[in-house]
Amino acid sequence: xxxxxxxxxxxxxxxxxxxxxxxxxxxxxxxxxxxxxxxxxxxxxxxxxxxxxxxxxxxxxxxxxxxxxxxxxxxxxxxxxxxxxxxxxxxxxxxxxxxxxxxxxxx
Length: 107
Fold this sequence. Notes:
This protein has 107 residues and is mainly alpha-helical. It has one domain (7-30, 39-106). It has 3 helices and 2 strands, in the order βαααβ. The chain has a two-stranded antiparallel sheet. It is flat, with a radius of gyration of 18 Å. The N and C termini lie close together (6 Å). The model is unreliable at 102-107 (pLDDT under 50).
C-alpha cells in the first residue's frame, strides 16, 4: 500500500489552501485602518509545479520570493547598503507550507 496523491484531491487542496492563505492576512487585521500603523509586511506566495518539482521557474525553489523580499526591504527601509538588513528581516519572518490532502490507493 502506498500513499499517492489523487489529482482531484491535489486540485481541491491547492484551491482550499490558497484561499485560506489569502484570507489569513486580511482576517488578522483589527480593522482596515489598522494597516496604516502596521510595521510588519503581510505577504503570501503561491507557487505552481510543486507536485513535479520546486526547482522549476514557477516553483518555490526559484529565486522569485527571495528577490521580492530583498526588493521590499531595500525599498521600504532604504537601507540596501547596510549589511544584514535582509537577513534580519528573514529571521523575523514566518514561513508556512500547506499540502494536506492525500488519498490512499492500493497499488
